[in-house]
Structures are given as structure tokens and as C-alpha cells.
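Duplicate of earlier report; Probable GTP-binding protein EngB input re-posted below.
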Amino acid sequence: MTDIEQEATEKAAALEAGRLLFAQECGFVAAAETLDRLPPDSLPEIAFAGRSNVGKSSLVNALTGRKTLARTSNTPGRTQQLNFFKLGERLLLVDLPGHGYAKVSKSQSKNWTFLVKDYLRGRVALRRVCLLVDARHGLKDNDRELMALMDKAAVVYQVVLTKTDKTKPAELAAMIETLSAELSKRTAAYPVIFPTSALEGAGIEALRAELATLALQR
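Output:
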């Protein structure tokens, strides 16, 4: 078997593993507004973070092949808790409150910020954070603040571009190049960027394959 054939075989196996994992039963486990309400960290966890209305809930739904698993809304700031979903007794998927939405109260925003920061710093089972970034707009200051926190806490995170169906190929390529250059300077950033579209399904299989590898980590 040539190197190219070996690579193709491994890629196909990874895609199939991702498909099988995310085809398993996935259900809501818990919603936590405070750290003492977090479920036991007995399974590897993957958290989804990003600015309000970036498409976190839509991506979770697309990954699991379900339309209403995670609540979606056109109104930013609707996710106000850490929402946990158990995937096939293998993973916990965690939908974090969106950051950067100005119309919530200052006290509410402060509470969400403390909750997310404490979760990211202290959750033993957390294997990776998917930092969702709108492909049209790129990183914002709120994203960079969260990245700095994860760099300091040694929490591995990867950038997942959303809404790529709303960008032109050249614009998307330029965005990926710009992000790659910035991520190369970050200590905890996973170097591979995943462009996705929850609407069209682009990149979903590749992201499933990547995340499936984390289900083996205990």
C-alpha cells in the first residue's frame, strides 16, 4: 500500500468513526447556572464557545444530525447556562453561553463570564473547546480574551468557522490564512481550522471525525 493509499484509508476510517459516534443517541443531561450544578465529569467533554449568534446550537444540531437537540434562536443571548448533552455514553457536548452580546444586563453578563471562566479553568474532563468564529467577521476582542484565558489554563481549543455558506471561496481562504497566522502564536491553540456550514453540511463530517478521537481520551 502506498503512502497516499494509506492516508486515504486512514481518512476514510476516521470519517466512519465520526459518523458512527455522532449517529448514537444524544440527549440533554443538565443545565448549570453555577458550578455546583455541573454534572459529574465522568466522560470526556467537548465544549462549544463563541460570540452570541455565531451558530453554536446550530452546529451541535448539525453534528448530531438532530434539528432540535440544542435550542436555536435568531435572538442573541438565549443560551444562558452551560447545557450538557450526552452522546452515546462516550462524550458530553457542552453548549456554553455566548459572549459579546451587549443587550443583556451587566450583572447577567458578569455572571456568565465568571461561570464560563471557572468551568474552563477547572473542568478535569474537558478535552477541547471548539471556539466558533463567524467566517464573515473573524476573531473579535471577546474571542481573544477567551483564547488568552485558555492559553493560560492550558485548555486546548480549535477554531471552527461557521456560516461559510455566506462567504466566497477567496474570502474564506483569506480568512483561514489570517487566522492560522494568529493561532500559530497561541500556546494552546490546535493548529487545524475547521470551516463549516450547519446549513449546507460543509465540514461537518471532518469535524465529527476529529472530535471522535477525543472520545477515547479518559
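The chain has one domain: 3-216.

Merging into the original ticket.
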